[in-house]
């Protein structure tokens, strides 16, 4: 699949895959200098790029495991969604979950983008729903007893 990408900043770096079968492409911070993220603070990091995703596909922005485990930095909204009709800059709202300020360097890999198909549902109000063995059990109700 080919994805059109527009650089909104001359210094922006295009997403890259870390290995042949990686599902997520690394997104890079498009910064002129370091940005400090204080403990429990969220900072919006620009990537300097805009995407043209095909109809029926979305870009899901996930944390990079190394950044999350080593620095405590992860997307504030847990998973960001880039809709196929969005043409603005892709940005990552990084939240510092730790107790120590962390810095984000220019061109640092700040998140990963997974491109995935989606289904647009037609929601229909119903008086009753079909029954299942699980029923309305939720929040751990399927665990062992």
The unreliable regions are none
Main sheet overview: 5 strands, antiparallel
Q: How many individual β-strands?
A: 12
C-alpha Rg, in Å? 19 Å
Overall body shape: globular
- List the total number of helices: 1
Topology, please?
Layout: E1 4-7, E2 16-17, E3 25-28, E4 35-37, E5 42-46, E6 49-52, E7 57-62, H1 65-71, E8 73-75, E9 80-82, E10 91-96, E11 102-104, E12 109-117
Antiparallel strand pairs: 1-6, 2-3, 3-12, 4-11, 5-10, 7-9, 7-12, 8-10
Structure description:
The protein is mainly beta and 145 residues long. It has one helix spanning 65-71, and strands at residues 4-7, 16-17, 25-28, 35-37, 42-46, 49-52, 57-62, 73-75, 80-82, 91-96, 102-104, 109-117. The chain has a 5-stranded antiparallel beta sheet, with no helix packed on it. Strands 5-10-8 form a 3-stranded antiparallel beta sheet.
